[in-house]
Design a protein that fits this description.
It is built from eight helices and twelve strands. The chain is α/β, with parallel strands linked by helices. The protein folds into two domains: 125 residues, Alpha-Beta Plaits (2-Layer Sandwich); 152 residues, Rossmann fold (3-Layer(aba) Sandwich). Helix 1 runs antiparallel to helix 2 and helix 5 runs parallel beside helix 6. The radius of gyration is 20 Å and the shape is globular.
Length: 304
């Protein structure tokens, strides 16, 4: 993907950036995860050396927590004042330096290490920044969980998670750790709004997905289906689909199984019993949308 910038943000000023970029074809070049801990490969060591040079060359940046995963990198960079170079320039230099060092180390001048572009998520406040710090720090443990629990890619009954309303019994297929992500983007696109309003809403949702947010919704209305189709074409995008019926007859197949579930990029979730008919009655759809909002924004949940 290309480098997507946050519209209206002045990258020459202060900023809190959550940076993510990955290896080409998801090759596991950078590290190994052993007992939930990162063990760096030579490429990962070179990457960290290049990352640390950001603060050495541009003291305006304070570097925060990082996670060098087997096939991708997460890091926080905080511009405390006006920097010499915008964060995108530094990320390009980090990738270039690590690639040059690996080519030299392996004697392979044509080696290609990196996927195109990177995610640049702008933290808007300290609460979001702390959420990103926790997400990065826990990333190796989540990786280990995914690889230690193949049963997650079969039907899971009575799934529990702090974000899921506890008064409901949840059934799922896929990677439940997607619920840990700090930015779940609710996708509720009404059929009653104008074409212009719909286009604006969809554009705002996709902008957040391009920056690493995970869309969550029923993807029932035409506008919601449009979002889902667009998300499928965003490299490394992930999705949580909340279905307003039961999963009795649901069997992962085709792209849903081979491309999304197997890669840990989707969670199929329902709060309805298995035998709920596979059709979206208005009551079910409204309840589903209510759950979407609660899961995406757990702080909005009423305490009684």
């Amino acid at each position: 993907m290309g480098n997507v910038r946050v519209r209206g943000h002045d990258y020459r000023g202060r900023g809190y950036y959550f940076i993510t970029f990955g290896t080409r074809d998801r090759r596991r070049l950078l590290s190994r995860i052993v007992d939930g801990r990162v063990e760096l490969e030579p490429a990962g060591e070179l990457l960290m050396q290049a990352w640390r040079q950001i603060a050495e060359e541009d003291p305006a940046y304070e570097l925060g927590v990082t996670a060098v995963m087997p096939d991708h990198f997460h890091g926080l960079a905080i511009a405390r004042r006006e920097p010499k170079f915008v964060i995108g320039t530094h990320v390009s230099r980090v990738e270039g330096r690590a690639l040059h060092a690996m080519r030299k180390s392996l004697g392979n001048p044509t080696l290609n290490m990196w996927d195109e572009g990177f995610y640049d998520y702008l933290s808007l406040n300290m609460k979001m920044l702390r959420a990103f710090e926790a997400y990065i720090a826990d990333n190796p443990a989540r990786w280990q969980l995914r690889h230690d629990h193949p049963e997650w890619f079969r039907k899971q009954y009575a799934l529990q998670h702090p974000r899921l309303p506890s008064e409901t019994t949840w059934t799922a297929y896929g990677d439940a750790t997607l619920l840990d992500h700090p930015n779940l983007v609710p996708v509720i696109v009404s059929t009653k709004i104008s074409e212009t309003e719909r286009a604006t809403q969809i554009s705002e949702i996709l902008k957040q997905v391009e920056h690493g947010g995970i869309p969550i919704g029923g993807f029932i209305s035409p506008g919601e289906r449009e979002v889902a189709a667009a998300v499928a074409n965003i490299p490394r995008a992930r999705i949580i689909k909340l279905i307003p019926w039961g999963l009795k007859r649901y069997k992962p197949s085709g792209a849903a199984a081979t491309r999304w579930l197997a890669d840990g990029r989707t969670l199929i979730l329902t709060g309805f019993p298995d035998n709920e008919p596979e059709e979206c009655h208005r009551t079910n759809c409204l309840k589903n949308n209510e759950w979407v909002k609660l899961i995406a924004n757990p702080g909005s949940r009423c305490v009684r």
